[in-house]
Design a protein that fits this description.
two-stranded antiparallel sheet; binds 5-O-phosphono-beta-D-ribofuranosylamine; alpha/beta; about 220 residues
């Protein structure tokens, strides 16, 4: 059911950002679709200057700034973060360019209810500067991953991935733009599958009910 352009039913999400917020915007757009099974309860930024904050506000979404620099330690910052998420009623937390490492306590408190998007085909290229490193490594295919978060950085059961070619002469920015386009497709799809209750963690991976597996292969260079 839509109300004033925002869904009032569906799995409530908290989206955590630190910057631009284009993945947040993709989730906002998805949640505005009448049949999408999730809604955004709150957008939280640890940086008061995050560009995404204005975009969330413009969409009529409640926003909170919890500036990590105002806290003595990681634990007190996370206690405030945890409180804000719980107060919002969110049941799934989506990290979307959130640039703070989270402690094991926080991550374990949201186990299997905390997801992240990372701009590589995990477990390749964990950490920062993934596109520079993909180009430097000479790989011909890279991509992006949505995964459940575990205490180790960029680790956890993979929910969905998209692969894109690395093209001759690509700069990191060009490659980032190609990957980002796919991020904006797979993050809403991961949230949709979770919100429909179709995603179950099984061992190191997930099982998806009514899985619609991809067909074919991305080959780069293409085979004639
Ligand atoms: C994205 O590339 C995401 O994969 C990574 O940080 C970037 C955030 O971009 N975790 P945006 O703020 O969503 O535009």
């Amino acid at each position: 059911m839509a109300h004033g352009g925002r869904r009032v039913t569906g799995l409530p999400l908290a989206i955590l950002i630190s910057g631009r917020g284009s993945n947040m915007e993709a989730l906002i757009a998805a949640c505005a679709e009448p049949d999408f099974p999730a809604k955004i309860a709150v957008v939280i930024s640890n940086r008061p200057d995050a560009a995404g904050l204005g975009r969330a506000e413009a969409a009529g979404i409640p926003v909170r700034v919890i500036d990590h620099t105002g806290f003595d330690d990681r634990e007190s910052f996370e206690a405030e973060l945890d409180e804000a998420i719980r107060t919002s009623g969110a049941e799934l937390v989506c990290l979307a360019g959130f640039m703070r490492l989270l402690t094991a306590d926080f991550v374990n408190g949201w186990r299997n209810r905390l997801v992240n998007i990372h701009p590589s085909l995990l477990p390749a290229f964990k950490g920062l500067h993934t596109h520079d490193r993909a180009i430097e490594a000479g790989v011909r295919i890279t991509g992006c991953t949505v995964h459940f978060v575990r205490p180790e950085m960029d680790d956890g059961p993979v929910i969905i991935q998209a692969a894109v070619p690395v093209l001759p002469g690509d700069t990191a920015d060009e490659l980032a733009a190609r990957v980002l386009e796919q991020e904006h497709r797979i993050y809403p799809e991961a949230v949709r599958l979770i919100a429909l209750g179709k995603v179950r963690v099984r061992g190191k991976g997930v099982q998806i009910d009514d899985d619609a597996p991809a067909e074919g292969a991305l080959v780069n260079p293409s085979v004639p």
